[in-house]
Amino acid sequence: MGKNPTEFKFKLLSDGEVKTGAITSIKEFGINNFSKYIRRKVEIDHSSNDMDKLSLIKAPEFIEETLFLKVLIEGSANLYLYENKKVTRYFYNKENAPIEQLVYKFYEIAEQKIGENQKYKSQLWHTLKCPTLKVEKIQNLKYFKKELIDFFMAYHQCTNTAYVNYEKIQKRNLFNLNLRLGINNSSLATRSIALSSKDTDFRNRLSVRLGVEAEFILPFNKNKWTVIVEPTYRYFISKEELTNQIVEIDYKSIEVPIGIRHYFFFNQKSKIFVNGSIILDIINNAKIDYEFGDDLEIEPISNWALGVGYKQNDKYSIELRYQTPREILRGYPGWTSSFQTFSIIFGYSIL
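The structure corresponding to this sequence follows.
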């Protein structure tokens, strides 16, 4: 369970002084357009739902408090959340009316007999009337966040009025899906302990890479850390002439970098990032083909990648990435190899 704050830390500038916003001085605040809290004086019932501590009174036992309420739905009708370690309470209001708690309470009728005060259903029925919101929908409405959000969304859709669903924004901002198109500058050198005549330098080759990056934003440290997974099609094709024969390589694979990214924010529209990944290389029938003698089947070992980049408007990005040398002939003890890649990658966020 989360907990509504009573104070929070903030900086007006990225390199500015850390200040404390207290509930006595801050009217409302948001976190990177990720969520919104408002300060209001409300009446709240703290009755316990613990079966051993139930109230003997059906009616809510209100006390007046000043709280930061988390905004869930904002529009012509608003839905709010307050929660701490002991209770979860939902609040609402319509247009400029005072904010009220949606009442839901367990209480003890007699020993071993428990009652439920579901007043929240009548509150919503009398306040948020609309032709498509039938009484059956209210009767079946549970006192859960998802169901209440869905109800308030249905009300705005029925009345054709605009609204903001902060929970949807929050979920969307926890995941990015990016198209990634780039250029690889790759090189490969192979060496044989026993047959130096087969040593080959395939030199640098340019090729296109095409990938899709899933980015999972970790919900702490102001969204600065993410986990990235980027399946990418890439290839390296080359042909060299040795002293006594031609040698060719056709090395196509799906690379899957899996790593961690950290963002440094300039402002809400621009940021730089650094990331580190381990690269899994998935191949199918790739080989080094000698004109004479046995060919070499490519069997790569995972390697590492380091990147630095820039992102604009959470849509467009550019990254420079370096991969550490990769051994691709692990199945041949008498051979060594070094496959290296430097990439320029352009990204576009589609989700």
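The chain has a mean pLDDT of 89.
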